[in-house]
Amino acid sequence: MTTATNWDTFSTALGDIEVIRDRNQLEKLSKDYYHFSPVLQKQLADKVADIVVRPQSEAEVLQVAQVCVERQLPVTLRGAGTGNYGQCIPLAGGVVLDLSRLNQVKWVKPGMACVEAGAKLAAIDKVTRASGWELRMYPSTYRTATIGGFIGGGSGGIGSITYGQLRDRGNLNAVRVVTLEDQPRVLTLRGDDVQKVLHAYGTNGIITELEIPLGPAYAWAEVIVVFDDFMHAARFGQALGEADGLVKKLISIQAWPIPSYFQSLKPYLPTGKHAALLMVAEPSLELFEALVKAWGAEITYRKLAAEAGKGTAIAEFTWNHTTLHARSVDPGFTYLQTLFPYDPELTLVEHMLNQFGDEALMHLEFFRVEGKVIAAALQLVRYTSEARLNEIIRYHEAKGAFIANPHTYILEDGGRKTVDLDQVNFKAEVDPYGLLNPGKMRGWLERFN
Asked: Does the pTM exceed 0.90?
């Protein structure tokens, strides 16, 4: 830790840029939803920044970068803190750089927008939908998450059933990045070069501005369909995903008793029934309902777009919000993130359902990978021990399922599994002292071992 006198000098060097030193605020602004993982709870609970800095412009970010490099201070980037893996938690104290004040939508063109990193996803949509366009995809934290945080720490979400994942070519056009060199610069990365900082946890550049592609804005209806059998529900989800003529944004399949944790939806979730939580474009509803009938299922909830915009959105019961709702009822739950291999019959999904039963409640989200409809699971795991959690992970991997491990804060040990040399080499270029989010990038740490 650095002395308070040093931080006085540091604050003075920043001039009028906002700094926060209140201990309660430092605690709050140093954390995300890492507590979803009992493993991370033990590792990260005591990690707190020495100071939080809130610039309001790219010019102020450059000024902060210069002062931090001169003093060799660790810098951890923060958007809204809605991540789950400790991405924005400062392992080495120092400065948390809160970018939430860089929140402007700079321009919107047909199919494209330029936005600052701290702009909230819902706020971006509000602007772009006025001209008939919307974000292609977003996490369940849509109302609070920032675009920079999503690009830096996310992977996909609502909308991925159509557009795939963030990393897929065409889902991010360009970024502006501030470096932490002796003389900080602003670099523009375009095209495939955006991969150098995409999903890098802010370890190798401070994203200040992004050019993002948009999709056509639809009137999205929210629908709940219930089933007596989970695998029947899951295969319905696969069939809906593959029905390319039906325009949809969300296919989330929840095994009972998960629906019992959704308090405000309880009237539409009969006891013992497995549920599909869906977003379907209104022009597709008629033939969507014909598909539901063909599968012998029942629609219990249908809200058209005009009403769906009021109150809690159905998307806030899916993806990682499912975990949030379950843990609010039973904090003993944690979760996994499982990508099943392409298999329209969902054979491995059924195997895991039978293998683990109530210990790992099945929760599927469907999205596209290389053009194919794939089931990903965010199973709710009844946590007993880290050893047992690791056994469950190893069993999945041995059977051919890919686990994006949400119980590690190391970038490559979570979703990537391999060191991305382009990202490591870019860090060497733009952050030669290793000041950005230190301790999170294994490829950088291994350079010195």
From this structure: yes
